[in-house]
Design brief:
Layout: H1 7-13, E1 49-57, E2 64-74, H2 79-89, H3 103-120, H4 127-142, E3 146-148, H5 150-155, E4 167-169, H6 176-191, E5 195-199, H7 219-233, E6 244-249, H8 255-274, E7 295-300, H9 302-310, E8 313-317, E9 324-329, H10 330-344, E10 348-351, H11 352-357, E11 382-390, H12 403-423, H13 429-438, E12 441-446, H14 448-454, H15 462-490, H16 496-515, H17 522-545, H18 559-564, E13 579-583, E14 589-593, H19 596-603, H20 608-621, H21 649-659, E15 670-673, H22 679-691, E16 696-701, E17 742-749, E18 752-760, E19 766-773, H23 779-796, H24 801-808, E20 817-821, E21 824-827, H25 830-842, H26 845-851, H27 856-863, H28 876-884, E22 890-892, H29 899-907, E23 924-926, E24 929-931
Parallel strand pairs: 4-5, 5-6, 6-7, 7-10, 11-12, 15-16
Antiparallel strand pairs: 1-2, 3-11, 4-11, 8-9, 10-16, 13-14, 14-22, 17-18, 18-19, 20-21, 23-24
Length: 942
């Protein structure tokens, strides 16, 4: 066998500990056929490579966040994908000779380890099979067909522990030792940049007695300690910030206190913010607010939901005896859950009976919790490693989904995922033991929203749901079929024998659900037929050999890896908006109409000239309403998560319901509601989620959070430290007339709000400023008044404004951080912001150029090679050529730093999305988490 680059190294590293689990079969081993590759041609030799310089700057102030020059990538990888992989996944100290500098090195490091472990643990029939497997994985990663989750790229093949899992579930019992161990284990997981979830329902309630005779504290009180610990750690690892999930059963006596925790804190945030305290994330005063570092979810049973529907009472049960300690009105409790979610988006809801009805291993324990993003649900003290396929890579130019290629690709990916458990490390011995015994996997996909649009399907349509269900069913059916085949080669998972009947029952449930899919066209009919065959074959093989994995599939947020694969949409999500943000080589950015739009228009039968006009209209308006030549019945194909034609909340719920029967775990997704939505709207969504058989559901109502995270900067009254200007001469004072032109600018710096009033001479030129910052009568307000007067007098005595600007720009003290001004989005202090803003308003371009101060329009014009006036004529011929090439016309971003901010400019209102803690741009939704388009940082799993 000819060994490819990096294979020897990978195989040496792959000789890891762990067992394959179960008893090994004496049957034939795995034969691997070529799917994407050609014999005799290495995947690296079939692409064009180019060297690029990765210089990631905060485009708002020009500061460099990351720099590595001369990295090597295929020429078809986007700037964004190259930037994210280089900054996030390349290992080694930046600037050292040991730093990875090519995608080849990264892929070889990971794939070599997987193949070596597969050889060591007896997966492959021959060395030739191992080589083909290596080539196939390399090709798929190289061509963005799929991606492993981030921990694989962070850790595999390095000297670090070989952690491959992003999702963890912990356990806590009703003892102080267990509770303190919970704090410790959660802290270690956060430190490594991952997240964890757990159920606190075993902890006795505050209405029960301790063995010593005292009253128990209850789980909510212990949540305070865990929240403080998480807030202190802030997932301070080098890779990303993480999250946590806290679950409580609906029959716990402290359930009402749990439901109200975050809603009460939101009321506190509102009151403190109105009183002038800095309540933005990272501010000094936010630490007084509790429970902000976790997602909360209530576990509801069918018994409870039936009581809600019938309006009867429901019993809350003692944790120690199981007896009913209190009867509550089920409908009133459910309404409190809905109201709390309406107020602050928490708690979400998890449907316990449904979850455990689809549980493959009930004899080994119930499923009680989920990971932070709610897609992984299995035994306590377990983990799940994820991988996601890029669905658009399987859509042909003829609009037909290549089900055969998809099926064979799933076989390869699920095999690699199972091999990873053979060499993986885990954060605790208990998690490692459970994962090796049950081998939970989480294959999924991204780009569903783009696929539906490209094939002419509305996201909220029967046809769209049918296609999504068929693809999901095929993915999970093939995964479990391959799992059964692997069981015949290297043995079933260790816990299978005890759970064989239950596991087979769940497989039959999946297969039966597949038979109920109502297909609507040739695409989904062909896919569903293949899924039927795969389920039948999987059941036959599984009956003989069992299954290698207790779980096969989830639908994760695919935040960072979605950007790595150049996906337009993440996970199960629809498109965010029709106009997006695009980074350009060499810096700068443009806005583009989604490249899926021209393809969708072709699928719907529009001619080239019609498509050109429609795309041009979308570029101008951001939506399709009244687009020339577009038939109204086709509007729904272009509906998005936000914007002029936003998908109705129940449309998201129905899409989740369509695919849930074909997912081993659950779905990471938040259902967004408009601000005008009512408590009853939330309650109806939670009820419908139960009726439709979902496992978990979370909602977010627009603008429901007063304490929306806006900045990582602190806010304190340091403005009084501002230096006084030095006057070196005695010029004549030129006073302003009693009536003079002026303007007022409201601003926010690092969460501190203020107003700048600037008065001018009638013949031009700044003559006075007044700065309002802090409550009237406070020391800060007085100091700023005095500072404003001193600057005003200096201006009137002839001190040039550019002198002040040169002295005060870049002056550093708190409050500092993000602002709400598109031209000056990061300021090192309030004075830094004020004088940059004054320079933009009152200094000519040539003087500002000397100071390095430009508006967003001027920076965009510089990138585009313009003169600096921020305008650019529309090139209709150029736009026509790009549309003919299957692309969308580009325009300057006009002050946006991400797709979310671009959408804000279109809608004229602020989006409820946090700012990235790494680069400061506004993140976009990805499942129930958020992802930064600038640097790839996420708030959860990917």
């Amino acid at each position: 066998m000819t060994e490819t680059v990096g294979s020897a190294t990978g195989r040496a590293r792959g000789k890891a500990k762990s067992t394959t689990g179960g008893s090994r079969s004496a049957g034939a081993k795995l034969r691997v056929g070529r799917v994407h590759t050609t014999e005799g041609v290495h995947p690296y030799d079939a692409v064009n490579w180019q060297h690029r310089d990765v210089v990631m700057t905060n485009w708002r102030d020009g500061s460099v966040n990351f720099e590595q020059r001369g990295v090597e990538f295929p020429d078809f990888w986007s700037v964004n994908a190259v930037n994210i992989v280089t900054s996030k996944y390349f290992r080694g100290a930046v600037g050292s000779e040991h730093r990875e500098n090519s995608l080849r090195q990264l892929i070889d490091r990971v794939v070599g380890t997987y193949v070596a472990a597969g050889v060591e643990h007896g997966y492959f029939e021959t060395d030739a099979d191992a080589e083909i497997f290596e080539h196939e994985l390399t090709h798929m990663l190289l061509h963005q067909v799929f991606s492993f989750n981030s921990p694989v790229w962070f850790n595999v093949g390095t000297s670090s522990p070989q952690q491959v899992s992003a999702c963890f579930i912990l356990a806590v019992d009703d003892t102080m030792e267990s509770i303190l161990n919970w704090y410790r284990e959660e802290g270690l997981i956060f430190k490594g940049g991952s997240g964890a979830g757990l159920n606190l329902s075993r902890i006795r309630s505050s209405k029960e007695l301790l063995s010593s005779g005292g009253t128990a504290s209850g789980p909510v009180s212990f949540m305070r300690g865990a929240d403080a610990s998480a807030g202190t750690i802030k997932s301070g690892g080098a890779t990303r910030r993480a999250a946590k999930m806290v679950v409580l059963d609906v029959d716990h006596p402290d359930i009402e206190e749990f439901v109200e925790t975050k809603a009460r804190e939101e009321q506190k945030i509102r009151a403190l913010r109105d009183a002038g305290f800095d309540m933005d994330l990272g501010g000094d005063d936010i630490v007084s607010v509790q429970y902000q570092n976790a997602n909360n979810s209530v576990r509801v049973s069918d018994e409870f939901m039936r009581a809600v529907e019938s309006g009867t009472n429901f019993g809350l049960r003692s944790r120690t005896t199981g007896e009913t300690v209190e009867e509550v009105d089920a409908r009133r409790l459910f309404d409190r859950i809905a109201r709390a979610a309406w107020e602050c988006a928490d708690p979400g809801i998890q449907y316990d009976t449904t979850i455990n009805d689809w549980h493959t291993c009930p004899e080994s324990g119930r499923i009680t919790a989920s990971n932070p993003c709610s897609e992984y649900m299995h035994l306590d003290n377990s983990s799940c490693n994820l991988a996601s396929l890029n669905l658009m890579r399987f859509l042909g130019e003829d609009g037909v989904f290549d089900a055969d290629l998809f099926e064979r690709s799933v076989e390869l990916v699920i095999t690699a995922m199972d091999i990873s458990i053979c060499f993986a490390d885990f954060p605790t011995p208990e998690i490692g033991d459970t994962t090796r015994k049950f081998r939970q996997l989480g294959i999924g996909y991204a780009n569903l929203g783009a696929l539906l649009m490209a094939t002419g399907h509305a996201y909220n349509s029967d046809g769209g749901r049918s296609l999504a269900a068929s693809i999901t069913s095929l993915m999970t059916a093939v995964s479990y079929r391959r799992s059964a085949e692997l069981a015949g080669i290297v043995g079933p998972y260790e816990g299978y024998a005890r759970n064989a009947d239950a596991h087979q029952r769940v497989m039959r449930k999946h297969a039966a659900a597949n038979d109920l899919i109502r297909t609507h066209n040739q695409n989904d009919s062909a896919i569903q037929a293949r899924a039927t065959t795969a389920w039948q074959r999987g059941l036959e093989v599984g009956a003989r050999h069992g299954w290698r994995n207790a779980q096969a599939s989830v639908l994760a947020p695919t935040g960072t890896i979605g950007l790595m694969m150049d996906c337009d949409t993440t996970g199960i999500e629809p498109d965010l908006a029709l106009v997006k943000f695009k980074k350009l080589v060499g810096g700068g950015s443009m806005q583009i109409v989604n490249q899926t739009v021209p393809r969708a228009l072709r699928a719907l039968g529009y001619q080239q000239e019609q498509s050109e006009a429609i795309v041009e209209y979308i570029a101008e308006h951001g939506h399709v309403v009244d687009a020339p030549g577009l038939r109204p019945e086709h509007y729904e194909v272009f509906d998005c998560a936000m914007g002029e034609r936003a998908i109705a909340p129940m449309g998201h719920v129905r899409m989740m319901a369509a695919v849930q029967p074909f997912i081993s775990g659950a779905i990471s997704k938040t259902v967004n509601l408009p601000e005008r939505a009512t408590v009853e709207d939330v309650a109806e969504i939670y009820r419908e989620g139960w009726r439709l058989g979902l496992k978990a559901l979370a909602i977010y109502r627009d603008n429901c959070k007063v304490g929306q995270p806006l900045s990582a900067g602190k806010s304190k009254s340091a403005a009084e430290e501002a230096p006084e200007p030095v006057v070196e001469y005695r010029p004549v004072r030129k006073r302003l007339p009693k009536k003079r032109p002026s303007q007022t600018v409201s601003f926010t710096v690092g969460g501190a709000e203020g107003y700048l009033h600037a008065g001018s001479y009638p013949d031009d030129g700044l003559g006075e400023i007044f700065v309002k910052l802090g409550k009237q009568g406070s020391t800060l307000a007085g100091v700023m008044d005095a500072f404003s007067m001193s600057i005003s007098v200096g201006l009137q005595y002839g001190i040039p404004l550019e002198f002040y600007v040169s002295k005060f720009q870049n002056l550093r003290f708190e409050p500092a951080g993000m602002t709400d001004d598109p031209d000056v989005r990061i300021a090192t202090s309030v004075l830094d912001y004020l004088f940059r803003r004054l320079a933009l308003d009152y200094l000519p371009l040539e003087k500002r150029a000397e100071l390095g101060i430009f508006s967003v329009a001027e920076r965009s014009a510089q990138v585009a090679g313009e003169s600096g006036d921020g305008t650019e004529p529309v090139d209709l011929e150029g736009m026509r050529s790009t549309v003919e090439a299957g692309q969308a016309p580009e325009r300057p971003t006009s002050g946006a730093g991400s797709s979310t901010e671009l959408l804000e400019l279109r809608q004229g209102k602020e989006a409820d999305a946090p700012l990235c803690f790494t680069c400061g741009t506004k993140m976009r939704p990805a499942g129930s988490c958020y992802v930064c388009e600038g640097c790839g940082s996420t708030s959860g799993c990917s």
